[in-house]
């Protein structure tokens, strides 16, 4: 059997959910399996989360788990049919490339937070971290958008 390493925060969340569910219930098994998928393969989980979310029953234990899973997926998300699959902040349609482009043009974090009132400082930190790791991807998107803007 393969052991899955999870952070203390993830373990505590899973334990909290487990404590609130009848251990003989099928929901318990499903929650543990989905939690294991999320911990073992966050990218796969993130890709499948929108479909999984559609099928979550409207009962407290599942709603609690859904809230947990939303946070587990991370602050930067790529959704195939949202903004062309570009990395965006959370569930928004604000692409990381747009924020990076504006920052390169001279806007500071305060300016960006005023321009995008739905964002928090932690969202910008996540965007800058994402850019640090994925600069080629983001720079290519900025370049493609600039070319599109020139065309009209």
Task: Report on the architecture of this protein.
By secondary structure, the chain is mainly alpha-helical. The protein has two domains: 8-72; 76-151, Winged helix-like DNA-binding domain superfamily/Winged helix DNA-binding domain (Arc Repressor Mutant, subunit A, Orthogonal Bundle), CATH 1.10.10.10. It is 65% helix and 4% strand. Strands 1-2 form a two-stranded antiparallel ribbon.
Topology of this structure?
Blueprint lengths: L7 H12 L6 H15 L1 H13 L5 H13 L3 E3 L8 E3 L6 H9 L4 H7 L5 H13 L1 H17 L1
Antiparallel strand pairs: 1-2
Output the keywords:
single chain, 152 residues, mainly alpha, Arc Repressor Mutant, subunit A, 2 domains, two-stranded antiparallel ribbon, 8 helices, 2 strands, 65% helix, 4% strand, elongated
- The overall average pLDDT, rounded, is 77
Question: How many separate domains?
Answer: 2
Helix content: 55-70%
What's the level 1 CATH class of the largest domain?
Mainly Alpha
Order of helices and strands: HHHHEEHHHH
In the CATH classification, which architecture of the largest domain applies?
A: Orthogonal Bundle
Distance, first to last CA = 57 Å
Q: Can you tell me the overall shape?
A: elongated
Strand-pairing-aware structural class: mainly alpha
Number of DSSP strands?
2
Instruction: Report the β-strand fraction as a percent range.
Output: under 5%
């Amino acid at each position: 059997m393969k052991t899955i390493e999870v952070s203390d925060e993830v373990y505590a969340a899973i334990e909290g959910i487990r404590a609130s569910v009848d251990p003989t219930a099928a929901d318990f098994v499903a929650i543990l399996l989905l939690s294991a998928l999320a911990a073992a393969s966050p990218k796969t989980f993130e890709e499948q989360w929108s479909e999984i979310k559609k099928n979550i029953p409207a009962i407290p234990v599942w709603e609690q788990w859904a809230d947990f899973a939303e946070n587990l997926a991370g602050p930067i998300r790529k959704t195939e049919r949202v903004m062309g699959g570009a990395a965006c902040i959370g569930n928004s349609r604000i692409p990381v490339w747009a924020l990076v482009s504006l920052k390169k043009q001279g806007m500071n974090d305060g300016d960006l937070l005023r321009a995008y009132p739905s964002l928090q400082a932690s969202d910008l930190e996540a965007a800058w971290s994402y850019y640090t790791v994925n600069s080629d991807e983001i720079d290519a998107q900025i370049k493609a958008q600039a070319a599109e803007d020139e065309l009209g």
